[in-house]
Fold this protein.
Amino acid sequence: MKRTTKWITLAVVITIAIVALFYITQVTKPTKIVFGSKLFNEQYILAHMLAHLFEENEFQTEVKESLGGTMINYEALKQGNIDAYVEYTGTAYNVILKLPPLEQWNSEQVYQQVEEGLLEQDQISIAAKIGFSNDYAIALKKDWVEENQITRLSELGPFASDLSLATDPEFASRPDGLPQIDKIYGFTFGRVRQMQPTLMYEAIKNNQVDAIGAYTTDARVDLYNLAIVEDDLGALPPYDAIIIVRKEFAENEELMNIFKILEDQIDTQTMRYLNKFYDIDKKEASDIAREYLVEEGFIK
């Protein structure tokens, strides 16, 4: 009888251990990982890039393209409806955490405050910093910039009153946008026109304006032969691309090691080049992502 009881006890212990092991496996190694994306080119490409990396490591994945804007993706992440997406430090700082603007923006300071703020506020962690920034910037025709030997915004002052500028409505009115340039650099453009991004690129292409509030990873910067002028006094926030995840993902070394494959791997020029395939060559985001990862040796 005692021997029977002993075997029953052992069987119960083994069963509990198997169930516990199964539970732990389910928690630490998800059966499917879901990636969200915002509503534009590089978001689609990067979401698929993450999916391909995880598929290479034998995970099932799903990409929710065009899930929505910043807060839709962020709330989906918090609620567990997606597991990761690409955010930008300036957006996290201003839109998600609603922190006060800095007198002079510093990318490392913004990154640190975002990292600490997301974790403290919502238990959200940064899995990797991809390497590029999709910043707002002032762009002019390359020929004009070279002719007048302009490389920095601080050198644009003597010309500004004679220049017309087109921007999207958000950049024109946000306190950390064009008004901040006016404040920090002490000049204003002669005329400011607000319009949709596609129209503002067409406007400078057709010589209807002299400058635009461009995005640094936009392929049209190269396509239309524009030059980005350096924000040398740090008037505008940095928008470094980061992958953000829930805390439980951040505690899983296997998952984090996969995210870390993209750590500092894509610079701004490369992202602009990849966006060109989507915007101009009309290739599928998933194909662009896969071809880049294969070319770099990240997947087979």
About this structure: The chain has a mean pLDDT of 91. Strands lie at 32-36, 60-64, 84-88, 124-133, 136-141, 164-167, 191-194, 211-215, 226-229, 240-246. The CA atoms of residues 41 and 74 lie 18 Å apart.
